[in-house]
Write a structure and sequence with these properties.
Blueprint lengths: L5 E6 L2 E6 L4 E2 L12 E6 L6 E6 L6 E5 L14 H7 L8 E7 L9 E3 L4 E4 L4 E4 L10 E3 H10 L1
Antiparallel strand pairs: 1-2, 3-4, 4-5, 5-6, 6-7, 7-8, 7-9, 8-11, 9-10
Length: about 150
């Protein structure tokens, strides 16, 4: 695929023009959306830490995601050898880490990062993989309001 190929797709945010060289392949899909294998990351707003992981084939399937390290430095993930092979990497530090973001309807103060199901992206190979974490020291959700309190107190 040439780098200049583009496609207009419908998204949860309206029509967007997508550079096809930036489409990510998810060989396992994403939990709850296993039938969708091609996604693209869309910027919501300039300078926003939040992105939309949008399915290429269904405008209704878009997950808000963020780099967890924009909010906390105390987060480690475990990646098994089989997952590294699927991602085509030798070292887990070779991938970008994203987590889904939940904003409850009518309660934006309860916005949370889902730390139990990080999404790893190998941008060079354009492969994404959700890697559920088990036996972790982290809570399944990290509430942004709790982080704000910690920063004020710290």
């Amino acid at each position: 695929m040439a780098a200049n190929e583009e496609k207009v797709i419908d998204t949860r945010m309206g029509e967007r023009t997508v550079d096809l060289s930036k489409v990510l392949s998810f060989p396992r899909g994403i939990i709850g959306f296993e039938n969708h294998r091609e996604f693209v990351l869309l910027q919501l707003k300039e300078d926003s830490p939040f992105l939309m992981l949008q399915a290429m084939d269904d405008p209704r399937v878009g997950l808000m995601v963020a780099d967890p390290f924009s909010f906390t430095t105390d987060y480690e993930i475990k990646v098994a050898d089989a997952e590294q092979k699927l991602l085509q990497i030798d070292d887990p530090t070779e991938v970008a880490v994203l987590v889904t973001v939940t904003i409850p309807h009518g309660a934006p103060e309860r916005t949370a990062l889902n730390l139990s199901g990080p999404i790893l992206v190998n941008y060079a190979a354009r492969i994404g993989l959700q890697v559920p974490q088990v036996d972790t020291k982290y809570p399944s959700k990290l509430f942004l309001s709790d982080l704000a309190k910690e920063q004020k107190e710290g």
